[in-house]
Design a protein that fits this description.
261 residues, 8 helices, 20% strand
Length: 261
Amino acid sequence: MPAAAAVKSAARVLDLLEVLADAGRPLAHAELARRCSVPKSSLTQLLRTLLARGYVELDAGTQRYQPGEALFDLTRRGRDIRTLITQARPILERLAQRAKESFSISVLRDDFAERVFSVESPRRQLYSLHVGVRAPLYANSTGKVLLAWMPAVEREAYLSRTRLVPLTDRTLVSGSALRRQLSSVRTEGVARSFGEFTPGIVGIAVPILGAPGRAIASLGTALPIERLDARLDAQLVRLLKEAAAVVAARAASQPIPTGKH
């Protein structure tokens, strides 16, 4: 699509959503076309896409359109992530200074763990945890946390549709082995990944718990495998669990919905 046409289509979509949001009532096709100054044929194409994505809903009885649940969910998700980061920022900053490691928070995005916030270690030599990185749930510690605290039905649905592709020579590619590991993760309250996503890097993560039995996010750290010994492992697990509990307590006052984003 030519750039000008793409910009025009994007503007029309935004106009359409703004008109529906401001109307306060469902609108008929003709009224939408008039208010948005869009030809009816073009409006039909836009509505078809938005209906398929759930951003607009159609009342079959009245044949009128209104904002869809996906639009509200999108708004809530953005607000909730910002709230979580605001709550967690000072805690992770203190944690990084205390432990001299990098820490991050990841959330569920479709079938991936997406890093949405991080603080870096004060060390001169460090492993950076870049915001925006997505990792398959089965292949890193933060993803395993999100998997372990998923409802069993959702977890099994994920495992049944997901091909466990080796990202390194240490990636776990056996479904039965992964299920056993997730059971241990749930029991111990911590997940580890030894070079499964990035060669030579160990990840350690714990859940930030919200609703009973579910993680709203995962809090983790990553460092070169050769630096990890039993003493440091125990220290990091303790500090991660303490920090996650504080973040969860703060989040409890402003519940953060979870689910498949």
